[in-house]
UniProtKB/TrEMBL annotation:
Protein name: Conserved oligomeric Golgi complex subunit 4-like
Domain of life from the UniProt record: Eukaryota
Cross-referenced PANTHER family: CONSERVED OLIGOMERIC GOLGI COMPLEX SUBUNIT 4
Length: 75
C-alpha cells in the first residue's frame, strides 16, 4: 500500500541520515577538536547542525507527501 511505501521511505531516510551523522561523530580527532576549540569545533558543529536540519526537512517532505497521497486516494 501507499502508506507502507511511505513508511519504508521514511525509515530508509532515517537510517541513512543516522548513519551519516554517526560517521561525522566518529570523525578522527573529534574529541581533540572539541577540547581545544577553534575552527574544528565550529565546522563540526555546523556539519552536525546541517545534518539534523536535513533530517528534519526530509521528514517534513515525507509527511507532506503522505498527506497529499492520502488526500488523492480519498477523492
Amino acid at each position: 500500500s501507499v502508506v507502507a511505501v511511505l513508511s519504508g521511505a521514511s525509515s530508509l531516510l532515517s537510517n541513512e541520515y543516522h548513519e551519516a551523522l554517526q560517521q561525522k561523530v566518529r570523525e578522527p580527532n573529534l574529541g581533540a577538536k572539541l577540547f581545544f576549540g577553534g575552527v574544528g569545533v565550529q565546522k563540526t558543529g555546523t556539519d552536525i547542525a546541517a545534518a539534523l536540519n536535513n533530517m528534519d526537512v526530509s521528514s517534513e517532505y515525507v509527511l507532506k507527501l503522505k498527506h497529499e497521497i492520502e488526500e488523492q486516494c480519498a477523492e
